[in-house]
């Protein structure tokens, strides 16, 4: 498990394990450190993808199925010990959703709750009309990151850190851009769902910036709810 999952704060008596899925280019340490903020009932694990941190010598995943297959392999033994909940941010929202669907369809198990943040629903047409950021030059990508916000200034100004961060981010963005999910007839998951969309984040629907923040948030939530049986 240590190869693909990081846990910095062991809580053997916890009743639930909360599994975090990182954003594009992200590692596992940021979310793994969140373990300090939870009480003894929650044990935090963070997914470590190939090509970063202690796995820096490994090749990046080429598609979302490679990520899902690997994460499922490590999560399956845990599912029979304690309940699991998933939290994914941006790119991590897609990988956490895809992992939950695979566990449900192939193994008949799923997390007790899915938390998603900072991205439109998997089947949203908005995702089909965004420019391919993975094809930007490093300079243009950095310019976009600096205006979009969310990336620490220390990383953007650290040339050595960027040498590791940019290739990982582009690899993850290619997966996001190639991920296609057709809207099914019914719900694919029965677990609870909570969606987060920051008021000060760069919105996915730019037309909703000025006067449609509330309606935009409802559209995003409603779209995600179509993938699950329960609301937030």
UniProtKB/TrEMBL annotation:
Enzyme class: hydrolase
One example GO MF annotation: fatty acyl-[ACP] hydrolase activity
Keywords in alphabetical order: Fatty acid biosynthesis, Fatty acid metabolism, Hydrolase, Lipid biosynthesis, Lipid metabolism
Reaction equation(s) it catalyzes: (9Z)-octadecenoyl-[ACP] + H2O = (9Z)-octadecenoate + holo-[ACP] + H(+)
Domain of life assignment: Eukaryota
Record-linked InterPro entries: AB_hydrolase_fold, TEII, Thioesterase
GO biological process: medium-chain fatty acid biosynthetic process
EC number of the protein: 3.1.2.14
Residue ranges annotated for the Thioesterase domain, each copy included: 17-228
Keyword Lipid metabolism on entry: yes
Record has Lipid biosynthesis as a keyword: yes
UniProt-listed Gene3D superfamilies: alpha/beta hydrolase
Family: Belongs to the thioesterase family.
Stated name of the protein: S-acyl fatty acid synthase thioesterase, medium chain
Biological source species: Leptobrachium leishanense
